[in-house]
Write a sequence for this structure.
């Protein structure tokens, strides 16, 4: 009998939402378990089989020196490594500390900050090791995760959309919230993958899936400013789940024209 490919799922600084997406696959999870040997996945099983993994899914950002060492070991033991979710590919909410003094923030919260093992920044997995693929989302989408696993099993490149949420709105027949009732929306610069969930309920996109392949952030900022937003408002919009994504990081730089 041919050996099943070995799957490992790793957690770093995150809320666990992306790992839970795998567990939420429900019926499909049984098929995954039949096709893959789940060798390491603390969220689901106490099993901890060491060795070489054919595929590693990594959730969370690198925030401590211990994390920085551990991801190196994981990379060495993984044939393919996929970063999943906003924390793993753009630093997550915790990357907001990249724009401030992390030690000062720690001192204001913890009674003994010197005991903390934290890095000055919270960075994506690719800032420390090479990755084969990045799967965006906060959390990732179940269908996209199944596509990645299916593609891995048959040896093809997974199809991950690079277009914006606006296209998903068109497909669903949503009325544009910005045009229809002036609601600020990150959809024009945000990668598709959520099915335009928020705009479908007449709420502006929050940018959960990070920047699309070629985001025109300058044009969107112009629209936000025309709607009366200050530079601080614009900065807050871009500094959320994907604050350390390069395109969003540049767009969030405060200006002095207010």
């Amino acid at each position: 009998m041919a050996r099943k490919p070995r799957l490992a799922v790793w957690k770093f600084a995150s809320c666990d939402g992306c790992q839970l997406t795998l567990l939420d696959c429900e019926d499909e999870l049984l098929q995954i378990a039949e096709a893959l040997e789940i060798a390491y996945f603390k969220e689901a099983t106490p099993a901890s089989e060491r060795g070489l993994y054919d595929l590693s899914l990594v959730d969370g950002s690198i925030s401590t020196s211990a994390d920085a060492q551990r991801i190196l070991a994981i990379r060495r033991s993984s044939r393919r490594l996929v970063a999943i979710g906003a924390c793993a590919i753009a630093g997550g909410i915790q990357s907001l500390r990249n724009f401030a003094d992390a030690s000062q923030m720690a001192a204001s919260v913890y009674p003994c900050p010197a005991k903390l093992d934290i890095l000055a920044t919270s960075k994506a997995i690719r800032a420390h090791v090479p990755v084969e693929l990045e799967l965006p989302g906060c959390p990732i989408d179940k269908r996209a995760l199944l596509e990645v696993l299916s593609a891995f099993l048959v040896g093809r490149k997974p199809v991950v959309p690079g277009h914006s949420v606006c296209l998903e709105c068109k497909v669903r027949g949503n009325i544009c919230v910005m045009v229809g009732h002036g609601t600020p929306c990150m959809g024009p610069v945000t990668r598709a993958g959520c099915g335009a969930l928020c705009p479908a309920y007449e709420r502006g996109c929050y940018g959960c899936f990070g920047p699309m392949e070629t985001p025109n952030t300058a044009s969107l900022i112009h629209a936000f400013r025309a709607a009366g937003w200050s530079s601080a408002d614009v900065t807050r919009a871009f500094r959320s789940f994907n604050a350390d994504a390069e395109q969003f990081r540049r767009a969030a730089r405060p200006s002095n024209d207010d």
DSSP finds twelve helices and five strands in the chain. The chain has a mean pLDDT of 93. The chain has two domains: 6-154, 165-251.
